[in-house]
Amino acid sequence: MGEKADVQMAQNPFEPYVESLRQQLEEQDPVFLIGVVVALAVVIITFVFLKYFLTSKTVRSAVLLVGLCDSGKTLLFSRLLSGKFKRTQTSITDSSAPYKAKNDRGSTWTLIDLPGHDSLRPQYLEKFKSAARAIVFVVDSAIFQKEVRDVAEFLYNLLTDPVISRNTPAVLVACNKQDVTMAKSAKLIQQQLEKELNTLRVTRSAALSSQDGSVGRSLYLGRKGKDFEFSQLPLKVEFLECSARGSKGEEGDADVEKLERSLAKL
Amino acid sequence: MLDFFTIFSKGGIVLWCFQGAGVTESFTGPVNALIRSVILQERSGNNSFTHESLSLKYKLDNEFELIFVVGFQKILTLTYVDKFIDDVQLHFRDRYKNELDKKGALKLLNNNFEFEDDFKILLREAEESGKARSPVTMRSFKESEKSQKTVKSMIETKGGDKGKEQGGKKTKNTKKDAEPVKGDQGRTSSSGQKMVENGNQGLTPEEAMQKKREEFFRRRVGPTEKNSKSPKPSQKPRGKQMRVWDMGGSSTKDLDYSERNGDGSTNGGEQNQEAQTEGIQLRSMEGDLLPVDYDSSEEEDMEEEEEKVVAGEIPKPGSKKGSSFGGMFGMLKGLVGSKSLTRDDMESALDKMRDHLIAKNVAADIASQLCDSVAKKLEGKVMGTFTTVTSTVKQALQDSLVQILQPKRRVDILRDVMEAQSQRRPFVITFCGVNGVGKSTNLAKISFWLIENGFTVLIAACDTFRAGAVEQLRTHQRRLNSLHPPEQHRGRPVVQLYEKGYGKDAAGIAMEAIAYARNQGFDVVLVDTAGRMQDNAPLMTALAKLIAVNMPDLVLFVGEALVGNEAVDQLVKFNQALADHSMSDKPRLIDGIVLTKFDTIDDKVGAAISMTYITGQPIVFVGTGQTYNDLRSLNARAVVSALMKA
């Protein structure tokens, strides 16, 4: 009985308020009430809308084609989209187009071809990296030996970028120009890059800070003490071979099946 | 005549190309070289470029993001090329406007641009217009004006004739006229009889001769004759008179002004004259002193420009404020909607930007070249909604500045030193620059940084001229060794100085130092050279010899951030000297820049832009003080934002 009285006592403090509220509401004009309800509904709907839009923006739907100058990105772009061979020159802006993946879901992404020239690379990467779902890193397998340090530096910058390491897009290293006889295989390129990145992560963390005091990336790739391997990274890095020109020259098809398969798996 | 013609998009896909008859080489190489050296380095002010034996001309279409390039042999001078490119561009745009309008790159890939026939027609037209015009046939007598005139009107009176002839003789300015006159006279006397069929039927041959002669003089002497005709010709024949100077009297008594100072009457005229001549000078010194080398004409020009600018701006707000309703809509229409930019629209914005850059210590002609290049990039571009011309220009300029400051090759000294280490040879860095920029100080800072990263350094004292240079380096060496004692670094001193005193040949010392480093296993050799002015030819030759003989891995030019327009001159002359005096066909030029005294400038960071623009080489180090820790790397974005700040 005492408990019932307690519960009733607990309910009682609210009772008068609820009563007064109900009385006030009944006193008000019903039109006014409807107006208030509608306004509240609009506010709630707007919130839901905004949330929906914001989350849909963060749905990354771009596949970036990056790489050094002359590695064959623009030709690869053309082959993936239309299958045709087109002569290309050094790109100075980005090109983008919707790409239909060859899988059952039929998902479409935006394929974006970024210029590879050193002076343009950083600003275009800056622009598109937050929207990247996958990054196709194109490597010229024929002259890889000469360029290994440049390739490694670019890859290092890519992997230690804070936005990219946060979003963890899939990284596909496409070893292009396999039609050339002296082209290195994907496995060899992977080993060379691992060795190079091993040294780079030491030198780059010792690099000078910028003149305004901002220190460079402090992200350390892989695990300290052990030799660097791509499997140590939180990102998924996959190596594959392709040839944008194709073995039959300009008329034939390109050998990009492996790339298409990997893109379909995304 | 043309070797090739290409049309490609800015994204790199070639839309259409034409290769001239008999040309086997691919044009991809030269066009790529054009893109990399001109467009990407913001030198698109002048639109022609030479690559080996080819001369390339190009045109940017910013509305559809296309580039038109034509290439022909350098030795040919084709006059029709500029107009031809313009014609082709207009034709191509008109024909493929629909396809090019769509967004996205698919349109470029899927369409086949069949431009062959149009191109051939245009080329034929251009070639025909360029051909030299056939020589103009002489008019027959019937067509000339003379046949229409009556004979009487052509006869001149005897008196006037004689006067003109004498006037012609007397106003001979050059002695050359004397000879043709004699020659004429000689000729006319001998062939006087032949001159019958002159068309001057009314005149005797002599008079015809005279008339022809003074016509000839009139044409030879030209406008001066016209002036001399005005004084009466009767005044001319007079003996040579002794010249009388106004102020010079015949006796010195006239020059004695001591009594006359009080008088006013006799010398009133003269004093007034004096007062007048001095009066001009009197009022010019009123007010503050003028600064050195101040040109009053410059100020007038600036005032006129300001007036023009103000006058130009006043009508615009006036038009906005005046007709309120229509004006408002007009302004809004200017903001919204697709409007393509023209040169005139951008002119005022570009001028403002140019002045802003110059105020931030960018060299003057580099600022104007940059603004020209930005104008070329934006011409014809369609502005998006709600963007003003100023903001578009500002954004484009910012992008180009960042692009210039981005290094065009990998800059990682530590990695390269490691590479040299694995090849068992020392990595040689040479520092050059004018006097007093901070070579020795920054050399010490860089060696400190290298030591901290575990390398051993040999400093070669190749400054054998300046008093105290070797001692300065020895002090640095001692200090560095005390900071990093040998016990911590495998028992050998981390820094050693290689010096041979003063007065010796710098190139020889450098060569010996490098050999010593190789023997002793040093990782890096830092070569310090004497400061020298870029105009000093023997010293520049000596520097070029040092670099050509020793082939260092890195040639760093040390420049201070305080320098203004001088930077352009210094770098150009240094590069020129290095190129001229090297024996090989691939001379070693400046590979990188060290920008020193960066802490002394707040945001007037324009020197960085000038130096990178001129050489195309990256800024490797930035010196921000005098202690060992004051060494930084360049952050392009921070520098550009400091530059663009108002």
Automatic annotation (TrEMBL), chain A:
<keyword id="KW-0342">GTP-binding</keyword>
<keyword id="KW-0547">Nucleotide-binding</keyword>
<dbReference type="InterPro" id="IPR027417">
    <property type="entry name" value="P-loop_NTPase"/>
</dbReference>
<keyword id="KW-0675">Receptor</keyword>
<feature type="transmembrane region" description="Helical">
    <location>
        <begin position="31"/>
        <end position="54"/>
    </location>
</feature>
<dbReference type="InterPro" id="IPR019009">
    <property type="entry name" value="SRP_receptor_beta_su"/>
</dbReference>
<comment type="similarity">
    <text>Belongs to the SRP receptor beta subunit family.</text>
</comment>
<keyword id="KW-0812">Transmembrane</keyword>
<dbReference type="GO" id="GO:0005525">
    <property type="term" value="F:GTP binding"/>
</dbReference>
<keyword id="KW-1133">Transmembrane helix</keyword>
<dbReference type="Pfam" id="PF09439">
    <property type="entry name" value="SRPRB"/>
</dbReference>
<keyword id="KW-0472">Membrane</keyword>
<keyword id="KW-0256">Endoplasmic reticulum</keyword>
<dbReference type="InterPro" id="IPR024156">
    <property type="entry name" value="Small_GTPase_ARF"/>
</dbReference>
<protein>
    <recommendedName>
        <fullName>Signal recognition particle receptor subunit beta</fullName>
    </recommendedName>
</protein>
<dbReference type="GO" id="GO:0005789">
    <property type="term" value="C:endoplasmic reticulum membrane"/>
</dbReference>
UniProtKB/TrEMBL annotation, chain B:
<feature type="compositionally biased region" description="Basic and acidic residues">
    <location>
        <begin position="253"/>
        <end position="262"/>
    </location>
</feature>
<feature type="domain" description="SRP54-type proteins GTP-binding">
    <location>
        <begin position="618"/>
        <end position="631"/>
    </location>
</feature>
<dbReference type="Pfam" id="PF00448">
    <property type="entry name" value="SRP54"/>
</dbReference>
<dbReference type="InterPro" id="IPR000897">
    <property type="entry name" value="SRP54_GTPase_dom"/>
</dbReference>
<feature type="compositionally biased region" description="Basic and acidic residues">
    <location>
        <begin position="208"/>
        <end position="228"/>
    </location>
</feature>
<dbReference type="InterPro" id="IPR036225">
    <property type="entry name" value="SRP/SRP_N"/>
</dbReference>
<keyword id="KW-0256">Endoplasmic reticulum</keyword>
<protein>
    <submittedName>
        <fullName>Signal recognition particle receptor subunit alpha</fullName>
    </submittedName>
</protein>
<dbReference type="GO" id="GO:0006614">
    <property type="term" value="P:SRP-dependent cotranslational protein targeting to membrane"/>
</dbReference>
<feature type="compositionally biased region" description="Basic and acidic residues">
    <location>
        <begin position="158"/>
        <end position="185"/>
    </location>
</feature>
<dbReference type="InterPro" id="IPR007222">
    <property type="entry name" value="Sig_recog_particle_rcpt_asu_N"/>
</dbReference>
<dbReference type="GO" id="GO:0006886">
    <property type="term" value="P:intracellular protein transport"/>
</dbReference>
<dbReference type="InterPro" id="IPR011012">
    <property type="entry name" value="Longin-like_dom_sf"/>
</dbReference>
<keyword id="KW-0547">Nucleotide-binding</keyword>
<dbReference type="InterPro" id="IPR013822">
    <property type="entry name" value="Signal_recog_particl_SRP54_hlx"/>
</dbReference>
<dbReference type="InterPro" id="IPR027417">
    <property type="entry name" value="P-loop_NTPase"/>
</dbReference>
<keyword id="KW-0675">Receptor</keyword>
<feature type="compositionally biased region" description="Acidic residues">
    <location>
        <begin position="295"/>
        <end position="307"/>
    </location>
</feature>
<feature type="region of interest" description="Disordered">
    <location>
        <begin position="132"/>
        <end position="325"/>
    </location>
</feature>
<dbReference type="GO" id="GO:0005047">
    <property type="term" value="F:signal recognition particle binding"/>
</dbReference>
<keyword id="KW-0342">GTP-binding</keyword>
<dbReference type="GO" id="GO:0003924">
    <property type="term" value="F:GTPase activity"/>
</dbReference>
